[in-house]
Every structure is written in C-alpha cells, then in structure tokens.
Amino acid sequence: MNTENNTSTWEKDVKKALIERDMTVSQLAAEIGFSRTYVSCVINGIYNSNSSHSVKQKICEYLGIAAA
User: Fold this and answer.
1) Which fold has domain 9-63?
2) Alpha helices, H only, the chain
3) The pTM is what?
C-alpha cells in the first residue's frame, strides 16, 4: 500500500472551497468557462503548464483562495 500523499496545499484548498460551497467541479468549470475535464486536470496537478496558469488564476479568483 502506497501511503505517500502527493496532493498539494493548493489542490486541498480548492477541494475544501468546493465542499464549503457545496459545488462540483462541473459547476466551477461552467462558472469560469472551461471544460470539467480540463478544470479537474488542473486541480489535480495533471496539467501544470503555462497555459494552465490562467485557469488556476480564475479558480483562485472565483473561490477566493490564494494562488499556488
């Protein structure tokens, strides 16, 4: 069993903010104008490039959390 946890603080903050707002990733994606798949990949650290930076910024602004 792998006990290593690679979840970043930013990922946890986003997930906590979604839970506090009773909001799904699909709803967040619709609000910020990106696909659910893309937003999910950015949140989970799968996409971590310059192009995903603008999505991270929109997520932070919408949820009112600090940028990564």
Assistant:
1) 434 Repressor (Amino-terminal Domain) (1.10.260)
2) 9-20, 25-32, 36-43, 50-63
3) 0.84
